[in-house]
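quick one, 639 residues, struct below
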Amino acid sequence: MGFLQRFSQNSLKFQVTATITGLILFISFGLFFMYVANEFAQLRRSARQEAERLAGIVAQAALPHLVRRDYALLQDLVRGFSKDPAVQSMWVADERGLVLAHSEPDFFGEPLGPVVQGPPFSENRVLIREDLRKNLLHVEFPMVLAGNRWGTVGMEYSTASLQETLGILGGEALLVTGLFVLVGFWLGAVFSKRITAPVSELTRAASALEAGDFNIEVQVEAENEVGVLQHHFARMARALAESQRELQEKNEALNTLNQELAGRVREATAELSRTMEYLSFILKSARDAIITTDRAGSVQTLNRAAEELLDVGREDPRGKPVAELLGKSKEVSEALSQVVDKDQTREIETRIRDRRGEERLLNSTISPLKSDAGDLLGAVVIASDLTEKKHYQEELMRSEKLASVGELAAGVAHEINNIIMVILGFADLLLRQTGPDHPSTQDLKMIEKEAKRGRDIVQRLLRFARPQPLKLAWTDLESILENTVSLLSHQIRKSGIRVEKDYDPRVSAIVCDRGQLEMVFTNIALNAIQVLGDEGILRIKTGAKGADRVEVMISDNGPGIQPEHMGKIFDPFFTTKEPGQGTGLGLSVAYRIVHEHGGIIRVRSRPGQGTDFFIELPVGSEREGAQALPTSGDFGEKR
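---
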């Protein structure tokens, strides 16, 4: 419903009538309550005065009997005054508060407390307490003679008659108030008709305007403010009619322009949609992470590659600092500051950890993001994952290093081997020429022992430098591992180590060089045994990696590997053992053998949490070239 229709439901006539009637009603009720309250107050004062007067009469009459201690006359006096209908109870007490006479004889001789609640009387004055709930006045009148208090006259005086009188007064006042209301309603109706007649005319005209009739005629009859309002309303109606005609003409012209504009907007929107869709395809297809930020460095948008690379999960990264996504490094914040403040492009490398806890190396290019007008909006970050590339570079460097060391070792080992053979020959000759009791015998045996150890090292160098061709054959992988444990059984028992084995029944025979793989497993297991003490655990586990590859895990619960040795464990001659206890070639040889089998060897270790070696091998004879992937935080040292 329209505004004017809603207004008609609460007509001005009704409001004027209701206002005048309500005002008279308010005044009438106010006068009614004032009258009743005043009369009630006067009645209460009269009742208090009457109760006090009656108690005084009783006290004056009872005092002589109290002085003579004539309690029988006191009781007759109290019983006589108690016959007054307004007296509910009456009593006389001595100065100690003991009841000497009472309208109810059972209270004779009782303390004052049970009769009237309150403390004992201590002042020579009249006390009157009103109990509105019971319509009673509790009066306590002292009996004083020559300045001494001989006792007290107490009385409960009923004020119920006040309520009856008040009800009569209220009825009379309500009757008068009703007459006032009727008169007020009649006056309101008369005045409202005179006031609202011109307004009703304006209401009728306004309803016609609301319905679209701009030719309405307004009759101006009143000569007061309402008449002025009617005159202005008529002028407004004529102006609205003229404006309506002009507005209709302009609306027709505007509709024509809107149709043309709508066509152009549809074409521009379609072109923009195609462009946005094309850009979206580009961003989704890009392999690099693309992130845009505002001037403060907070993420605004990112493509699918960024979500996958930075592992944002279910939480929306928008609004977060981009430095949190790129490793929380100070370098990211500084680079972003230079891009925004100095309009430069920066390229930085940072490290993050993926959902598996493995470290990833990122190369990020940060460039300014500008509008068509050249205003700086923020920055664009393009991040690439260099982890695999870094691994390949390290693999290439390691292969080149192994090749160089192999060539050097081949030449050096041959020359050293000749020298060692001469030393062994002369040591053997001297031992034959001297008896067991000769002073030099022990020294000669030491020379022979160390020369043989040197010969063994040279032989291992030669095997490393000039690897023998693999003798591939189908071999049971479990039997190779069992033979490895058997070869190391003496060291295992001596060290008090427990071996736990978990062989996957799906893993059986593979194509390999049995002797070479035994060397790999032995070197890795021996390293673990040498760092484990009592209660140490050596775990050997196999498992399938798809349909054409298997994995062997050899792990321990030893001290783990220090972070500073990351990336060096497969380097020749690198060892953390005491001098004379290792050559640093065991894991280098293991790496080369796994590589020749087309496998991958990985190491996972953290200080204090043990070390895990993973050897992944192909089941068949196809070999793709193995990779050793020790990375920071996840790979360990050779022990």
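Confidence is low (pLDDT under 50) at residues 1-9, 114-121, 623-639.
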